[in-house]
Amino acid sequence: MSDDDGMDGNEDFDLDYENTDEEPDADLENQYYNSKALKEDDPFAAIESFKKVLALEQKSGEKGDWGFKALKQMMKIYFKMENYDEMLACYKE
């Protein structure tokens, strides 16, 4: 009886590695979390910072999760500030 359980040492393994191009953009992620940290203490600065997330995403040429999350946070801030027009503008974007 063999210790290799019938495994031939010359077999090709089909390993599916993720493409590194699909990794989230670190700049977008960092900008998002920095913005979120400002949300409670300085909502106006947080909004401006979230707008930078949107600008970075636009620069990359495609919409993604970080821009969506930034818009969602902006909507929450505008709602809390009772600025419903700006909240709806974020919703429509």
TrEMBL record:
InterPro entries: 26S_Proteasome/COP9_Components, TPR-like_helical_dom_sf
Record-linked SUPFAM superfamilies: TPR-like (SSF48452)
Chain segments carrying region Disordered: 1-26
Coiled-coil region list: none
Superkingdom field: Eukaryota
PANTHER family named among the record's database cross-references: 26S PROTEASOME NON-ATPASE REGULATORY SUBUNIT 11/COP9 SIGNALOSOME COMPLEX SUBUNIT 2
Protein's name according to its UniProt entry: COP9 signalosome complex subunit 2
Organism (species): Rotaria magnacalcarata
